[in-house]
Design goal:
428 residues, alpha/beta, Serine Threonine Protein Phosphatase 5, Tetratricopeptide repeat, Collagenase (Catalytic Domain), 2 domains, five-stranded mixed beta sheet, 8 strands, globular
Amino acid sequence: MRKRAIVSWAIFGLLMIFIAAWAPARIYVMKGKRHSAAGRYQQAVADYQHAIRFSPNFARAYVELGDANLQLARYDEAENAFKQAMGLEDESCASCGLGVVYWKTGRYLDAEKAFKRATQLNPNDVCAYDWSGRMYYDLGRYEEAVGVFQQEIRLSPNVNGYLFLGNAYTYSGMPGEAVSAYEQAIQLNPEEVMAYTQLGVAYEYLKRYGEAIEAYQQALRLMPSEAKAHYGLARSYLAIGDKKAALAHSKMASGLDEKAAYFVPLGNFSSPATAELATYYKRKFGIGIVCLPAIPLDASTFDGHRHQLIAEDLIELIKRTYPKLAEDDDAVVIGLTDSDMYIREKTWQYAFSYWVDWRFAVVSNARMNPANLGRPASAELLNTRFRKMVMKNIGILYYQLPPNSNPKSVLYNSIDGIEELDGMGEEF
């Protein structure tokens, strides 16, 4: 009997020691979550680190630590924390967080595997569907984005999920399905301005201009300063022949838009030609485009084997040269070059243009120049082709318009060569 009592007290003592270590760890995790919710991520990191010191095998503390480091863009620290969590407990949140790290650091195949692992561990993990959908959307893989956003809203209908789904439908050339998604977003939140604005865009692509105007007007009733809705009204009124109303909304949009557009010549591209382009778009759209000093090309942007510039590295060169613009979410920067270019992640022989992050683009006119194609030189033809491709990037990045399947539109999304480029018009 006495031995049983001793054993019971020993177990009780061990339990008290465990609780004494475990309870402070949970308290610090709760404190960290409160700091994270308030945007105080540095304090949250300190709290989670305290929790881990009290309980080194507390997997959730590592997950939360990884998430706080993600918010601080400390990707190495976040990756280490998520891997520590997975070593303790193979669960979906850690795998999803690791997927986000891989996405943000350009390791897309690893990200895809991590997100799929998260959904295998927990088929009801909304987080994994949401983040993987955002990655596919950001990479322009819109059909895959549609699939995962559909999964997300089946599990948890939410406004952002429907907005992303609608946008992915629009960019996939399915504006009818996009209308349904935006209407679902509005049903969940009748005051969601972006849903009405995007609904207007979808109606424009369906040529239902009256309904587009109604959607844009509703967006402006909720937020009179929504520049994108004014731009949409300008396009829609112009489509139905009301030039006076179109001009009025175009002027209002220009006065409200906080975005700034920049042209930057790369290498030997002519600075006067850059200024001439900026003047053209100022007259056409009222956009005040700033012409930046030219950036000399360095060896990192050139593929000696292919004798071509590398589009992705040109973008990185622009970001390194103008770091303040790289940090400015309202800055749209388009690099201009007359050297041949290809996109590393594509199997194409060359590229007319390349854009990323919804803010940066580079356009090459090397394959647009008739003289480079064995034909008589024509400055007029070269300039027309170049204007179209630059305008397409302005439409996508500045006005956030989706590419479309209309071969006459400057936003045509299937440009396989010079023939398609020549067939495009110069209007959205």
